[in-house]
Every structure is written in structure tokens, then in C-alpha cells.
Amino acid sequence: MSDNFFDDWGLIVEEKPTCKVPWCNKPKAFNAKAFCETHQQYKTICTAAQHRYWLMYKVEKVVAGDFKCEHCGFEPYEAYPNVDKKRLASLMDVDHINPQTKHTPEGEQPSNYQLLCKHCHILKSHEEGDFKAKKYRNG
């Protein structure tokens, strides 16, 4: 078996025994294919996070209790105290602050993420033209 593999951007890189989440440098968990012990647990919470690192960021925010819209301040826990965390998480989105760097190593970092409620995220996306297919955007 080769010591090399292809990362998410199609580049050949030498396999490293660290977590696949770009901002985490912890060693992979024992018998884990890609994640450290913490992110391996988070993967069970958000099963679609294998290549969508912003979902790991969202789970980190939920677990830390730092779960409010970074634009308007909406706090799902306060607005809906009797609703479970997993359902409340669906009220929030992770936005790429600089959408031009999406899917690049620089763009998939916590410094380029912000947690927004659905309303703020939709409005930001419309302002940026991010809701349109790339071929129909100006510039």
C-alpha cells in the first residue's frame, strides 16, 4: 500500500498521522481513518462532515455552547429552550466570510467561518450573488 494519497483538492500528499480537519493537528484516533478522537466523535453527530469541514466547525460551536448568530445575535437555545440541540443546529449555517476562498486550504479555516442564522445567511448570500450558479455571476 502506498504512503501517498490524494487530498480533497486532488493534490498528492504524504500520509500524515494527524486529524483530517485542516485546523486540527492532533494525532488520528486509534483505528480511525481520518480524524482525531474529538473529531471522530463529532463525525457521529454530523455524518456529512467527511469533506465538509465547516460542519465540524458548527459542531465545535454547539459543543462549546457558543451558538449564536455572529451578525444579529440570535440565540437558538434562548428562543427555543425545550428543543434538542441537534434540531436547533439546523437553524444555523456556517458561512464562508470570504466566499472566493471556499474549498481551498486557506478558506477552510475557522478564521474564514462565521455562524449565521438562516435569515442572515440568506441575506448575505444575496448581497454577494452567492445564490447564483458561478457561470451567471458578474465578475
What is the topology?
Blueprint: E1 4-6, E2 12-14, H1 37-45, H2 53-64, H3 76-79, H4 85-89, E3 92-96, E4 113-117, H5 118-128
Antiparallel strand pairs: 1-2, 3-4
Structure description:
The chain is an alpha+beta fold and 139 residues long. The protein has one domain. It is 29% helix and 12% strand. The protein contains five helices and four strands, in the order ββααααββα. A hairpin with a 5-residue loop joins strand 1 and strand 2. The radius of gyration is 17 Å and the shape is flat. The model has no long low-confidence stretch (mean pLDDT 81).
Number of DSSP strands? Answer: 4
- Sheet with the most strands: spatial strand order: 1-2
Beta-strand residue fraction: 5-15%
Mean pLDDT across all residues, rounded?
A: 81
Please state the overall shape, judged from the principal axes of the Cα atoms. flat
Brief account:
With 139 residues, the chain is of the alpha+beta class.
Question: Features of this protein?
Answer:
single chain, about 140 residues, alpha+beta, flat
